[in-house]
From TrEMBL:
Pfam families: DMT_6. It comes from Hufsiella arboris. InterPro entries: DUF486. Keywords: Membrane, Transmembrane, Transmembrane helix. The chain crosses the membrane at residues 36-55, 76-96, 102-120. This is DMT family protein.
């Protein structure tokens, strides 16, 4: 159960982080943000990233093996990276419709998934 909780929390945290890191690139399309300067954009992104931490920190705390979770530190990190790229691909497809995914993007994603496989593999 802790493993599923960790994964769900990581998905939620990465959704907020992707929005904080890349969402502001679409602010130019919104009337309310056209006059905002860089510092205002940074503050808005930090405010969004705060919610990322509300999910990321508990996900790592509950998922970490030494706290009773199922994952060691390396597994947590690689899992987070795979979830991060998954969330980003969904975000890019939905929000940045001008971005086209090519075969090399999918090959790179497969390599990330292979990293997850090898990190979790017990030899």
């Amino acid at each position: 159960m802790r493993g599923l909780f960790t994964i769900v929390m990581l998905f939620i945290s990465n959704a907020f982080m992707t929005l904080a890191w890349y969402g502001h690139l679409r602010f130019k399309d919104m009337a309310w943000s056209k006059s905002l300067g860089l510092f205002a954009i940074i503050l808005i992104s930090w405010a969004i990233a705060f919610f990322e931490y509300l999910f990321q920190v508990p996900a790592n705390k509950f998922g970490f093996k030494e706290n009773g979770g199922p994952f060691n530190l390396l597994q947590l990190k690689v899992l987070q990276e795979a979830i991060s790229i998954t969330v980003f691909l969904i975000f890019a497809a939905l929000v940045f419709k001008t971005e086209k995914l090519a075969w090399n993007h999918f090959v790179g994603f497969i390599f990330i998934l292979l990293a997850v496989f090898f990190i979790f593999k017990k030899w």
